[in-house]
Amino acid sequence: MSELLFFSLLNGIVTGLLLFMLASGLTLIFSMMGVLNFAHASFYMLGAYFAYTISLYVGFWLGLILAPLLVGVLGALVERYGLRYVHRWGHVAELIFTFGLAFLIEEVVQFIWGKETKAYHEPEILQFSLFTFFGQDFPAYKAFMLLVSIAIFIVLLLILTRSRIGLIIQAAITHPNMTAMLGHNVPLVFMGVFGVGCALAGLAGVIAGPALGTFPGMAVVLGSIVFVIVVVGGLGSLTGAFVASLLIGLLQTFAIALDYSVSDLLAVLNISVDAESALRDLWALSLPQVAPILPYLLLVLILIFRPTGLFGKRET
Amino acid sequence: MSIKSTIIVGAAFATLSAFSAQAAEKIKIAFIDPLSGPFAATGTNGLQQFIYAADELVNKKGGVLGGREFEIVPLDNKVSPKESLVQLKRAIGDGIHYVVQGNSSGVANALTDAISKHNRRNPDSRVILLNYSAVDPALTNEKCSYWHFRFDAGADIKMNALTDAIKNNSNIKKVYIIGQDYSFGKAVASSAIQFLGEKRPDIEIVGNELHPIGKVKDFTPYATKIRASGADAVITGNWGADMVGLGKAIGETGLDVPIYTYYAANDGITKTIGEGGKNRIRLVHEGPVNPPSNDVYKAYHTGFKAKNPDKDVSQFRIVNVIQMLAKAMEQAGSEKPIEVAKQLEGMEFTTLHGEKVVMRSDDHQLIQPIHISVHTNENITFDSDNSGYGMRTESTIAAADTALPTTCKMERPE
Amino acid sequence: MTDTTHLNGGEATAPLVKRLGPWIGLAALLVVLPMIFSTNSAIYTMNLMGIFVVFALSYNMLLGQGGMLSFGHAVYFGLGGFMSMHLVNYIEEEIFVLPIFLVPIFGGLIGLVFGVIIGSFSTRRAGTVFAMISLGIGELMAASSLIFVAFFGGEEGVSGDRTMGPNILGVDFAQDIEVYYLIAAWAFVTILLMYLFSRTPMGRMANAVRDNEERAEFIGYSQRKVRFISFCASGFFAGIAGGLFAINFEIVTEENLNAMTSGVVLLMAYIGGVGFFIGPIIGAVVFTLLQTLLSNYTEIWQLYVGVLFVLTVMYVPQGLTGILAMHGPAFRMQRLGILVVPYIRAGLPTALMLCGIIGFLEMIHHLRAAAVGETGMSLAGIEFDTHAVMPWVVVVLMGSVGAFLTKTQMPQLREAWDQANAPLASDKGVTS
């Protein structure tokens, strides 16, 4: 059992931190521009595909650097020539634009790279097991993912709280008009943040591609989970996004690891149920089965009872 | 430019009309499977195999019924039962009487149901469903239909074969079953428990897990759980991305036990699993690839690869579908579904591999030899995904031994 | 711009004939359509259109009329479908005696019930909160539908037989044409009801709340109540659409209530134009046509739909209906004639450019997807070799020359447009 708990904890943290890389960019974009970017996970997918193609020619490590940059530039272009243009039609149009963009990017990816899973692998140098605990291996690549995510978190936090540009960003989040009055180029800040946010998503894609598979559906699989994190963490709160990412990561891992069902609970309470009733599925419901629902349940409950999210100061 | 295109169009028309005047009307076969969306890779691969089989084994040999050729009409269903019915209607509207389908038992159930209803309501435009891959046992048992013929072995038949292999491996004491949460995954799990219980009551089932289909992004938590359960073997019916993720995750935990699978080969899976699954992943299937059974098959496979270098003959049953359909039409002397169905029922046939197979009349299940193969890069003649790895046959269960009783009560037309 | 309708000339005081005219026309069209397009697949496509017209209209009660962006509208459509399918099965088992054509009402009722339950907490706020709750509920229901097999039938869904109901007037719905008239009748009734709803004070208040919730509160209406009622009504009509779906396909699956269907209905409504009552109708018809016809000719049809969608959002946020409506003033001033020649002059090069682009994409796709040695390809009846240089030169030339010519024709089009709309355009406020 302790083996299961230990590894579930590790896996949960790895998943959580990966989600954080996606969520950090999204939450900044969301709180600044008020746009929930549905295409955010698509940039994550693009990161993986770019890195795959680059790695075919110059190897994994250059891909790790180049792919996020490319995705970042692409994101900035989308902001400059797409989102800013659509902004004139209002928020709903922006939301729908990103929704359409997500759909389009998936089609374009299929058009360029085809529909099958790409053989995008970890670099040779990381293909060993870092340590073995209770006879179970922990791959070095997972540790690498862990390190990259933590580094990103620290760098982001430092930039946002310690640097001049960070202060401008924070100001632009809460008082965009005032910031513009003070002579800062707010549209440029928006474009920059959108680009950096997409680059972060791209980076997440680069490192997740080998671990979770590089296929056209990878954006959809992760897409709405990231929204959950942003909403649960609270608007514009990097700490909130961090905590929520870890929470969701651990929630999903442990829900799979712990095999308890409703009927177990009822058995403890000495209640017996009819195995033939129409609600039989409800009694047989086990924790691993409901694992994928839990984040959305959390989302709905948070929105109803605490619309500011766990750490947010404003309502969404 | 306009003059040029006029000439081209004119020439095209001329050739077309000359051609149609020459050849008899083609027999159209509707291919209803995913050609877009997440499962498109499997679908397009199947389509190319159908086109190649029809060209190579029927059309180039002079067609059927005195020179009529097979034409495969691809119709995209996006693995959606609803889209499949739309495409079925379109096929029927175009006068097509033969439908081939394979991906997802959900779709096969919907199509069988719709075709049975259609044939009852429209006796003058009947349709036959040739199922080449959907293996839910219900299709040849409680939900069986006279108009449905299955060329792949049912999930229970395959599990019977798999458990035969497990039976002889005395190292296996604990088995973990994991699958996708839908009819097929459940069928795999229940037949695994049934057959293991009969053949090796000493084996303990240490886990019986169903996960949501196509929604799990990281299989590591499952792999951790499997590892922690102390299993000596894993059984899974996973396919597509779910198989890739599971195979990879199990490999990463360093768990060195055999993984018995239904679909862990081709369509990018073999390539992705690569070294991590060597001698570990086993596959239960029909149609042995390595070593090739004979020169006829070798030539066929080589010819296919020459034409489709990045695809594989991953579903040999497709060849059987085409050949048996052609034979049935010849025997019936007609392309009328009712006549052809009569001939297909109970048909005995020798495949390209030289294997003897029979379409059992009771439930329209093709009874054929089943093979257990291992994922390896040694002694591989035809690899998968051009990865150097492929499936090498380890053991074979004779056709007669694979047959299972059926509960099918078929309604036959007058 | 937001409330122009083509069904109604504008004023409620218009003569009776003028007010009823469009409806009689619609009814006549619905009756005649299957006689013009009588092939099996045409009828099937029209059935699909009818279902999606109702569904998209119900969606627009939220987005267009109520200003609520929902990413989970398929929930009510799907639940309505499941309920109706179960009902059809009960009828077959003779637990209930009910003519099949009444089944969609029960789909609507279950949609209404869930609309009341979910609306009670989700309509408290509009905007992003509502959108996120709808997304969460959508995902929740889709995932649950695979877990609760007893009701939803798992991945296979629930199927039934529509012909087993009591036989009225010799109609047993065995043939698609009978189902067509069933769907047409329901579509007619629901379109009428939804239209009337939008004309009630309640429907008007929904518009007011959409445009400015604060002002709506000031004149004494609870914005929350208004949204809640719109939401419930929308759920009801979505449920009816689900019921029609169940009868038409005789199968309902998880797909009917998942995010994909929710996305498709958003797409349809938006492409058609959410600011107009008939926008979603046009959107549903166009989208269904694209889906069923385009996929016959090209494997990359979804790419085209994606491009179309993004371009619509960017450049014509009023949707296809918006483009039509833009011509309203010119039409009323009887000046459409002025635009014909400029349109042809601009349209021909645009078509050339599109041909070039489509040809280019199709050829790339063919190059990648076709079997080795199979270099011949046919596009629009023209056969050519994708490995030769010539076809590539041709499509690139077509694309670039077309683009260049289109650009040169734009000024004259703009001029003609201004001319056509000149004197009275000021008080119409139509954006061009």
Would you give an account of this structure?
The complex is a heterotrimer of chains A (316), B (414) and C (432). By secondary structure, chain A is mainly α. Chain A has a domain at 2-221. In chain A, 73% of the residues lie in helices and 3% in strands. Chain A has helices spanning 2-33, 40-58, 60-86, 91-113, 140-162, 164-174, 176-181, 186-212, 218-233, 238-257, 262-268, 280-284, 287-290, 294-305, and strands at 129-133, 136-139. Chain A is globular. Chain B is an alpha/beta fold and 414 residues long. Chain B has two domains: 21-153 and 301-367, Response regulator (Rossmann fold); 156-287 and 369-402, Response regulator (Rossmann fold, 3-Layer(aba) Sandwich). Chain B contains 13 helices and 15 strands. Chain B has a seven-stranded mixed beta sheet with strand order 7-6-8-9-10-14-15, with helices on both faces. In chain B, strands 2-1-3-4-5 form a five-stranded parallel beta sheet, with helices on both faces. A three-stranded antiparallel beta sheet of chain B has the order 11-12-13. In chain B, strand 3, helix 4 and strand 4 (128-131) form a beta-alpha-beta unit. Chain B is globular and about 60 Å long. Chain B starts with a helix and ends in a 12-residue tail after the last helix. Chain C is mainly α and 432 residues long. Chain C is 71% helix and 3% strand. In chain C, the strands form two sheets. Chain C has a two-stranded antiparallel ribbon with strand order 1-2. In chain C, strands 3-4 form a two-stranded antiparallel ribbon. In chain C, helix 11 (259-272) runs parallel beside helix 14 (319-326). Chain C is globular, with a radius of gyration of 24 Å. Mean pLDDT of chain C is 83; it is low at 1-11 and 428-432. Classes of the chains: A mainly alpha (316), B alpha/beta (414), C mainly alpha (432). Chains in contact: A-B, A-C, B-C. The A-C interface holds A 34, 36, 82, 85-86, 89, 91-93, 95-97, 99-101, 103-104, 106-108, 110-111, 114, 224, 227-228, 231, 278-282, 285, 289-290, 292-293, 296-297, 299-300, 303-304, 307, 315-316 and C 63, 67, 69, 121, 124-125, 127-129, 131-133, 135-137, 139-140, 143-144, 147-151, 259, 263, 266-267, 270, 300, 302-303, 306-307, 309-310, 313-314, 317, 361, 364-365, 368.
